[in-house]
Design a protein that fits this description.
Layout: E1 8-11, H1 17-28, E2 32-37, H2 40-50, E3 54-58, H3 64-78, E4 83-86, H4 101-126, E5 132-137, H5 150-170, E6 174-181, H6 187-192, H7 199-209, H8 218-229, E7 240-243
Parallel strand pairs: 1-2, 1-4, 2-3, 4-5, 5-6, 6-7
Helix pairs in contact: 1-8, 3-4, 4-5
C-alpha cells in the first residue's frame, strides 16, 4: 500500500519549488490533493499533470475566506481532510529601516498568518480522522539571520513557535511538525540572493558552505515531507526537522 493511500491533503505554495515537488510526491504515494497558489496557469498545468486526484484553487493565502474555501473544497471533492502541508512563502526583502510597512505586513501575513487561518479552519476536520497532521515548511532562517531579510526571518521563527503550540494544544489527535530547509534550488532562493551584491556568487557560496557541497533539490524536501506526514512518523510531533545539507554545522 502507498504511504498516503486514502489520505486527503491541502498543499499551499503548490505551483512552484518545494510545494510543487511535495504535491507530485504526495499524489505519487496515493494522496488526493487540493493545490493552492496564486498563479492560475502553473496551478492548472500541475493539476492536469496530476490527474483526477488533484484540484487547483487559485487565491490569496493571506485572505481568511480563501483559506476557508480550501477546507470546503477538500470536503466537497474528496470527503475529508487528513493533512495540511503549508509551504506558501515570500521574502519581503529590505532592512528594518528601509522596509515599507505594507511589505512587512504582507510577508508576515503570507508566511505566518496564513498558517493560522488554514489551521484554524482545518483543525476541526483533521480531528475527525486518525493519523492527521499539519506540516509547516519553515526555514533555517528561523535560526540563522541573513542581511535584508527581517520579515522573512521573523515570520519563520514565528511559524516554529506556532507549530510547537499547536502540537501541545491538539495532541494526541493531530501531529504538528515543521521542516527547516537550507539553500534549496528554487526561484525563492535566487530571489533571496538579490539581497547580496553578487547574487550568483551568493548562491554558489551557499552551496559550497553546506557540508554536502551542493544545493538541496525540491525533491529532497518532498521526501522529508512525505515521511513526516505518513504513519512512519507516527511518534513525531512538535519537532522542527532541519534539512540543510549541514550548513548550520559548517
Amino acid at each position: 500500500m502507498k504511504k498516503l493511500e486514502n489520505k486527503v491533503a491541502i498543499i499551499t505554495g503548490a505551483t512552484s519549488g518545494m510545494g510543487k515537488a511535495i504535491a507530485i510526491t504526495f499524489v505519487a504515494n496515493g494522496a488526493k490533493v487540493i493545490l493552492s497558489g496564486r498563479d492560475e496557469t502553473r496551478g492548472n498545468e500541475l493539476s492536469n499533470e496530476l490527474g483526477e486526484n488533484a484540484i487547483f484553487i487559485a487565491g490569496d493565502i493571506t485572505n481568511a475566506a480563501y483559506n476557508k474555501e480550501l477546507i470546503t473544497a477538500a470536503i466537497d471533492h474528496f470527503g475529508k481532510l487528513d493533512i495540511l502541508s503549508l509551504n506558501a512563502g515570500i521574502l519581503g526583502l529590505g532592512s528594518v529601516t528601509e522596509l515599507p510597512g505594507e511589505v512587512w505586513k504582507n510577508t508576515i501575513d503570507t508566511n505566518l498568518s496564513s498558517i493560522f487561518y488554514l489551521s484554524k479552519y482545518g483543525i476541526p476536520e483533521l480531528q475527525k480522522n486518525e493519523g492527521s497532521s499539519i506540516l509547516i515548511n519553515a526555514s533555517i532562517a528561523a535560526y540563522k539571520s541573513f542581511p535584508n531579510h527581517p520579515a522573512y526571518c521573523a515570520s519563520k521563527a514565528g511559524s516554529l513557535a506556532l507549530m510547537r503550540q499547536m502540537a501541545v494544544e491538539y495532541a494526541p489527535e493531530i501531529r504538528v511538525n515543521a521542516m527547516c530547509p537550507g539553500p534549496v534550488d528554487t526561484p525563492l532562493l535566487w530571489d533571496s540572493a538579490k539581497a547580496f551584491e553578487h547574487p550568483k556568487k551568493a548562491v554558489e557560496n551557499a552551496a559550497n558552505k553546506t557540508l554536502l557541497k551542493r544545493l538541496g533539490q525540491p525533491k529532497d524536501i518532498a521526501n522529508l515531507a512525505l515521511f513526516l506526514v505518513s504513519d512512519d512518523a507516527s511518534w513525531i510531533t512538535g519537532s522542527a526537522m532541519t534539512i540543510d545539507g549541514g550548513i548550520l554545522n559548517a
